[in-house]
Structure of Fatty-acid-CoA ligase:
Amino acid sequence: MLAHRLLRKTPSNSATLAPSRLRSPVALPTWRPASYARYVSTVRQQSTSTAAAAATAGSPASEEQQGELLTHSYVKGDTSVPLCEDTIGDFWNRQIDRYGDRLGLVVKQEKNLHWSYRTFGEKVDALARGLHRSGFRKGDRLGYRTKELFQAMNLVGCKGLVTTPGLRSSNHMSMLLEIMPELAHQKANELQIDSLPDLRQLIIVDNGVQVPELGSLKSWTRYEDLLDEDTFRTGLVQDPLQAVAPTLHNNDIVNLQFTSGTTGLPKGVSLSHRNILNNGIQIGDNMRLTEQDIVCIPVPLFHCFGLVLSSLAAMTHGSAMVFPYEGFNAEATLRAVSEERCTVLHGVPTMFIEEMNHPQLRQFDLSSLRTGIAAGSPVPIATMQDLFKKMNMSEITICYGMTETSPVSFQSRTTDSIEDRCNTVGTIMPHLEAKVVDPVTGETLPVGGSGEICTRGYSVMKGGYWNSKKQTDEVVDAEGWMHTGDTGVMDARGYLRIDGRIKDMISRGGEKIHPVEVENCIFEMDGVEVVTVVGVPDARLGELTCAFVSSKRGYDIDLDTVVKHCRGKISHYKVPSYVIKIEADDIPKTPSGKIQKVILRQRAKEILGL
């Protein structure tokens, strides 16, 4: 909320709820906050009735609700509910008016802090005013390298840098001094760093960790000194936030979000208020979030998963946000869910697997859980079944997208069958279009054909890649279609199955192999904890399939057992030629939890002597 609050307008007496998705059109009122709130309340009741009917009849509910069956792999999302045209600050301001006394934020680590929406807003305002007083203006970039400043919802840079000097996992000051030795002899607010020429200010959060390097430095500003909570309460001085607000627009870039870097170097994606606010609204609608929900967020805030799918989805529905720990910790997450009675839990599959394999799992009361999001990689059916049985998450949803699309383009519904939630990523989001095309000709494929997934609509990155028009033009075509680089198959109902990244596809003697299919097959074996499949070079066939397998305690899975299991279940040429045993903790992952196959390919070549 930090950068968003710099952009917050003066309080409004009107209140609004996030719009809900409808499958059938309704008469729309004029866009006014008061009437819109009443309208959305009616919409939610209709949407709940539709979902209940779907649950009774099975999912998908019926052809009448789903529309006519498709012949080609092109879908367009529902447009009967208009997009929100607010800035994030405007929307946030109304949520404070509506839910001010309700629980808004919980931070479990160390402080075990509990804030209402109103207190949360006051704290964010104080930080925004302090930054304004320090010289930050619209268009400046503020970078965050901290897990303590939970009210900072962005990772951007770089006129200023906020950091926590020491955490359990790292010493940030040592790293900063190594890459910016000039810090040792410069003054606060007057930084001149050769490697970061725009950087002027370093803000340090004191979280009680003793860091010797800080003692002799004068180049930093204390976070507590930056806050401005009292100056404008007297009314004698105009609040600078009121002067900033009229200059802001929902198409302004509010977030420079960096990609995960699973297939290459991370790229800065320029996202607007309109991009990520609407995506957060729609994601929360699909989970049926309300002000009664408590969302546990163990995923990182520097990733779209933490920023949009978690924080914005919760905020736009008046739900409380719970942060269990400075980084992912399975036990801390389970404890937070149990103690705070969380109803929603997010994670990538490897996080959920670690939580369910925790030796003290049964000691935690997870009965309050209802829904959540699994994203980042496919969820095997066995894992989904365990989430239902062990963690009570019968309404968990699946999301698909990418940073460049704000990020979610497809999402399953809470009433979708377990097969649809495992084998597909659901259906298209409102106000978006998607198609599956032949990667060579660009032609839209018939349903059932495998090709590249392309998406178009409000969610495509407003500003493209930061300072890189060439890279932007390589992925967004002249008609506005985002070429995702992912391959998938759309069925006649509009449900999308992800096959994998084009770059990850294995070519064995001319035959194309999608790693996901092989991974799902191996994961069905008893004793498999984590599996990931990559291609390795072969002089005769071009590439062969190699599986990295982590076994549960008490199991020993090798090539022979994998081959025996896979034969007859998948085509013979897809059966792995190599199996490499690996501990789950040794599998390289991005900070957001995605497996880095680029590193595993190189590791396999070294291990196998290829």
User: Anything to note?
Assistant: Residues 33-57 form the longest helix (25 residues). The first strand starts at residue 74 and ends at 76. The two ends are 49 Å apart (CA to CA). The chain has a mean pLDDT of 81.
